[in-house]
């Protein structure tokens, strides 16, 4: 499983199949298991929404260099020019890109999706053990258009996926 996530994030960063819209990019991982929409900020942090056809779900995450303990959860403040929300993030896997280690943080999908769709810039503030705060910001220009384009492709992937016929039923 860890290998799969590392492969997917490597593919996110090095995919050949992509389309550019402002600072947002969308595409498909090279192993064709997921679609993504993402942006990279000036500090090389990544904000992304990824949809996996085999799991039939999408999720939001950021990947930044701030270290966290795998599976730990903690509060974070998210803010756009149109609103703010208190969220809980979950620390996922770490991966290395261009010699730097990044840590992936997962969000509640609906809360982040609402913020991304309503603002021009989004920022996330998280408390550090030192008593300081780390703030990361991402440009949301054309985010909605890019995300919707990616989601349409992801939906088509799910529709083309062979349906399982041996799933348990309750009748």
Summarize the structure.
The chain has about 170 residues and is of the alpha+beta class. The chain has helices at about 1-15, 110-115, 145-160; strands at about 20, 25-30, 35-40, 45-50, 55-65, 75-80, 85-95, 100-105, 120-125, 135-140. Helices cover about 25% and strands about 45% of the residues.
Commentary on this structure:
- By secondary structure, the chain is α+β, with helices and mostly antiparallel strands.
- It has helices at 2-14, 109-116, 143-160; strands spanning 18-21, 24-28, 34-40, 46-52, 57-64, 73-80, 83-97, 100-106, 121-127, 133-139.
- A ten-stranded antiparallel sheet has the order 1-2-3-4-5-8-7-6-9-10.
- A hairpin with a 2-residue loop joins strand 7 and strand 8 (100-106).
- The longest helix has 18 residues, at 143-160.
- The protein is globular, with a radius of gyration of 16 Å.
- Mean pLDDT is 82; it is low at 1-21.
Note the topology.
Layout: H1 2-14, E1 18-21, E2 24-28, E3 34-40, E4 46-52, E5 57-64, E6 73-80, E7 83-97, E8 100-106, H2 109-116, E9 121-127, E10 133-139, H3 143-160
Antiparallel strand pairs: 1-2, 2-3, 3-4, 4-5, 5-8, 6-7, 6-9, 7-8, 9-10
């Amino acid at each position: 499983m860890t290998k799969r996530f590392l492969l997917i994030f490597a593919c996110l960063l090095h995919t050949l199949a992509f389309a550019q819209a402002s600072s947002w990019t969308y595409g498909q991982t090279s192993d064709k298991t997921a679609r993504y929409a993402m942006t990279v900020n000036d500090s090389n942090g990544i904000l992304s929404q990824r949809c996996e056809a085999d799991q039939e779900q999408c999720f939001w995450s950021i990947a930044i260099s701030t270290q966290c303990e795998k599976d730990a959860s903690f509060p974070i403040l998210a803010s756009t020019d149109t609103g703010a929300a208190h969220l809980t993030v979950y620390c996922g896997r770490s991966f290395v890109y261009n010699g730097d280690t990044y840590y992936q943080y997962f969000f509640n999908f609906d809360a982040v999706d609402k913020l991304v769709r309503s603002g021009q810039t989004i920022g996330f503030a998280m408390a550090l053990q030192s008593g300081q705060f780390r703030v990361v910001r991402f440009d949301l220009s054309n985010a909605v258009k890019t995300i919707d384009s990616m989601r349409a492709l992801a939906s088509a992937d799910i529709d083309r996926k062979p349906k399982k016929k041996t799933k348990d039923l309750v009748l």
